[in-house]
Design brief:
mainly alpha; binds zinc ion; metal-binding; metalloendopeptidase activity; CAXX_Prtase_1; endoplasmic reticulum; Peptidase_M48; 443 residues
Length: 443
């Protein structure tokens, strides 16, 4: 079947869009719930995988399993709520109600120039309202996750005040960044019509590149306090590593991640010719300089092997492909009519509806994404290994997993869909780790 036939088939389709969207939504929920069920069984195991015996004691393992179960139960509840929300949106034409409501607000916005009352501004209002509504609904979930789950396991360092302040900042930032992007993108869709995918794709890629620079340099500092890593063993080791592999290190910072959570992390950011390495104080406080350098060797491995650029290229191909597919649905009368739009066909709503139709493809793409990102993780581990950090990296990975209570064991199908990183036993075995018992170093 050619694409033209496919398009006309959809256009003249004589079936219920509501049934299709409902079916796909329930299908996705059923599939991911089945994965959760499989993972829950693994999280009920009482002993760590054979390859990790001696590295992780039973008590720590049990605690990480319990943490994993709590998080999974919470995610499943979240998902059930999301399903009900989607079904209500489909059944009660909530997009049309939001569209009309945002139209009424726009009509009352006398401060805007009169040339700004078209579909683009209306789309921006729709997006703003929808984002605010979604954020408000998600607040109780976020509160529960931070104070009940993270708090129970000793990870949360937020107070109610600091958490609320972060939420307000998040909403403001997503609107300040999101609204102009929505305006630019839908202006392009409006201008180019059905041939928007290539232009829309190009602009989205440029926006992603800009965001990759803006977020770590300007947004992250709004949430954390930066200070320079002091002179000493750690700083010398990191600088030596950077110069050995030609990383254009300009600044070395530590941020107060411990003010919010005791989970640890490290990342790098900046422009191609001038970069900074950022370490969470939680990482510095709990690891030796050699272990931290090994973690950074892994991170810089991602840089050296162009993983970020490759990921951007990979995502861009997917994006343009999706835009082409969505173009087949965006100009479909019956789709809009069925969801309460008889006189206008706002593409922003078309995209929202398309996201339901696209669910099975999204699912397949997720599996592909995971394969790609795990491949990169193995490559970055190998890079650290090749530069002499094998033992420190092994120690660091075990320590980080224990401290963060990261799920150590996983069902293969759940893992293939959810995990961007291989789990600890997989990474250790790729690094050639032998359990301490086999090495005769049993503690
Ligand atoms: Zn990595």
């Amino acid at each position: 079947m050619s694409l033209a036939n496919f398009t006309s088939l959809i256009r003249e389709a004589n079936f219920s869009w509501t049934d299709l969207l409902t079916g796909l939504t329930i299908g996705e929920f059923t599939f991911t719930s089945y994965l959760d069920y499989r993972q829950y069984n693994v999280l009920n195991k009482k002993t760590p995988p054979e390859s990790l015996k001696g590295a992780i004691d039973d008590e720590t393992f049990e605690k990480s399993q319990l943490y994993g179960r709590e998080k999974l139960k919470f995610a499943s509840f979240n998902k059930l709520f999301g399903l009900l929300q989607s079904l209500a949106t489909i059944k009660y034409n909530l997009y049309a109600k939001f569209w009309n409501f945002s139209g009424n607000l726009l009509a009352k916005s006398h401060f805007l120039p009169s040339s700004w009352n078209g579909i683009i501004t209306h789309s921006v209002y729709f997006f703003a309202l929808y984002t605010l509504f979604g954020t408000l609904i998600s607040l109780p979930f976020s509160y529960y996750n931070t104070f009940k789950i993270e708090g129970k396991f000793g990870f949360n360092k937020h107070t109610l005040k600091s958490w609320s302040l972060d939420k307000v900042k998040e909403i403001l930032i997503s609107l300040v960044i999101g609204l102009p992007i929505v305006a630019i993108f839908f202006k392009i869709v409006d201008y180019y019509g059905e041939s928007f995918p290539l232009y829309g794709g190009a602009v989205t890629i440029i926006i992603q590149l800009i965001l990759q620079t803006i977020v770590p340099n300007f947004i992250t500092p709004l949430f954390f306090k930066y200070s320079k890593v002091e002179e000493g063993e750690l700083r010398t080791k990191l600088e030596n590593l950077a110069s050995e592999i030609g990383f254009p290190l300009n600044n070395l910072y530590v941020i107060d991640g411990s003010s919010k959570s005791s989970h640890s992390n490290a990342f790098f950011s900046g422009l191609p010719w001038s970069k900074q390495i950022v370490l969470f104080d939680t990482l510095i406080n709990h690891s030796t300089p050699d272990e931290i350098t090994a973690v950074l060797a892994h991170e810089l491995g991602h840089w050296k092997m162009n993983h970020i650029a490759k990921a951007l290229a990979f995502n861009s191909i997917q994006l343009v492909f999706l835009f082409y597919l969505s173009a087949k649905f965006l100009y479909n009368d019956s789709l809009y009519r069925e969801f309460g739009f008889s006189t206008v066909q706002p593409p922003i709503v078309g995209f929202c509806l398309f996201s339901y139709i696209f669910e099975p493809i999204n699912c397949a793409l997720t599996f592909g994404d995971r394969i790609f990102s795990r491949h990169n993780e193995y490559e970055a581990d190998k890079f650290a290994n090749d530069h002499g950090y094998k033992d420190s990296l092994i120690d660091a990975l075990i320590k980080l997993d224990i401290q963060n209570l990261i799920t150590i064991d996983a069902d293969w199908l759940y893992s293939s869909y959810h995990h961007s990183h291989p789990i600890l036993p997989e990474r250790l075995s790729a690094l050639g780790y032998l359990p301490k018992q086999i090495l005769g170093k049993d503690k």
